[in-house]
Amino acid sequence: MRIVFMGTPDFAVPCLEKLINSRHDVVAVFSQPDKPVGRKQILTAPPVKVCALENGIPVYQPNTLKDVEKLELIKSFGADVIIVVAYGKILPHEVLVAAKHGCINVHASLLPKYRGAAPIQWAVLNGDSKTGVTIMQMDDGLDTGDILSVCETDIGINETSEMLFDRLAELGGDELLKTLDLVESGEISPQKQPEGDFGYAAKITKAMSPIDFAKSAFEVHNHIRGLQSWPCASTVINGKNVKIHKSVLCDIEGGTAGEVIESKKRLIVSCGDGKTIEILELQLEGKKRMDAKSFLAGFTIPEGTVLGR
Predict the structure, then answer these.
(1) pTM of the model
(2) pLDDT > 90 in the chain, percent
(3) In 3-state terms, what secondary structure has residue 112?
(4) Which stretches of 262-307 are DSSP H helices?
(5) DSSP type of residue 234
(6) Which among 1, 100, 168, 290 is least buried, having the fewest CB atoms inside 10 angstroms?
(7) Cα 137–86–100 angle (5° rounding)?
(8) How far apart are CA 265 and CA 305, in angstroms?
């Protein structure tokens, strides 16, 4: 099939790569405009654009798809289907119906759960044991279109959003190819999504970083792994802001919420349910990321210290 691909971040790259290496023909790629990145604000191309150019595929980066000129451009490719993976903008109705098979989206959740911008992070933040990828026929709603196929996977108890992100990106690409075969052959059986509120995956913000140790150990652990690798969970230790990168649940009995129970070679902290977590990796503001043993060798945290103050 002739394919127009729309995507922007890392998550979309495996899908694009698998399409390029398949029997299908990716005739054009649409991605968000280059953006300034880092402290020096260097204008940087999105990962999808880089991948497309490396494979000799023309790339278009319009600020909007709402004008007639852009719609005519999309139609001019004569695409059988438009594949959308984390493109970053809501598509006008005219684009949704611009190809023979419309627009097909790869969404990183088990729809209808976690419609919205950050389904991977919210699945981890909420402590879900399962998630997956849904291949969906796009409609005018927000992730409300008919389900074409689903691929489910377990979430490990210590798996971070970053780790899950990489796994789902690969699973999504594989499931997409299987689904396209069924679409092309006419063997696909779209299923309507049920009505109701199944949880909205709102954007992740820096304001979410501070850890509330009054919550249960499981919730605190989920907070830490859910916000990895951006914006990262954080707390205050001895008046210093510290990012917490990695933790595990611990079987040592706790005390006051946020209280450091052990801090010689291991950093163990009590949570609100009287249970504890062990912090494995952390990063003092302006310093490099370190394992807890190395961190404690140069930054004293007396037992009994309450984090977050």
Answers:
(1) 0.95
(2) 94
(3) coil
(4) 292-298
(5) E
(6) 100
(7) 35
(8) 15
Helix (H, G, I), strand (E, B) or coil at 77: coil
3-state secondary structure of 306: strand
Query: Which residue do the tokens 């609100």 mark?
Result: 272
Give CA–CA dist 120/113, Å, rounded.
11
The C-alpha angle with vertex 43 and arms to 40 and 48, in degrees rounded to 5, equals 130
Establish whether the linkage from the previous residue to 216 is cis, with ω within 30° of 0: no
- Render pLDDT for 125-184 as a digit per residue (tens, 0 to 9): 999 999 999 999 999 999 999 999 999 999 999 999 999 999 999 999 999 999 999 999
Give the torsion through C-alpha atoms of 44, 49, 55, 56, to 10 deg. -100
Instruction: Pull the structure tokens for residue 35.
Output: 């953006």
Bridge partners for 259 per DSSP: 306
Give the closest residue to 251 by CA, choosing from 225, 280, 222, 217: 217
Q: Using H for helix, E for strand and C for coil, what is the string for 163-188?
A: HHHHHHHHHHHHHHHHHHHHHHHCCC
CB 216 within 8 A of CB 124: no
